[in-house]
Write a structure and sequence with these properties.
39% helix; 4-stranded parallel beta sheet; alpha/beta; single chain
Amino acid sequence: MKLSILIVNWNTRDLVVKCMNSILKNEPSFLYEVIIVDNASTDGSRETVANLFGHNKHIHVIPSLRNLGFARGCNLAYQSSSGEYLLLLNPDTEVQEDALEALVNYL
């Protein structure tokens, strides 16, 4: 696994969906995974992400029973990651064409 993309989500359903769509639209050519920690969202984020992306082998959702905060959410995602490189990505980010390739090539 070359890249693990770690996303911590809390009540940003529409933004995390846009973020995920941008990752899938601009997938890198190397092996990657996306790990989303849902910090006990109440806006249907976890269910929406599971319904839209649960079939994708690259995407893993970790539900948290309480809001762990950003740092602890990142640590939880990190524990499940297996990438040589880690990208902490906020759910309000949209990945542009070739951005993931450029990032890993630079590193």
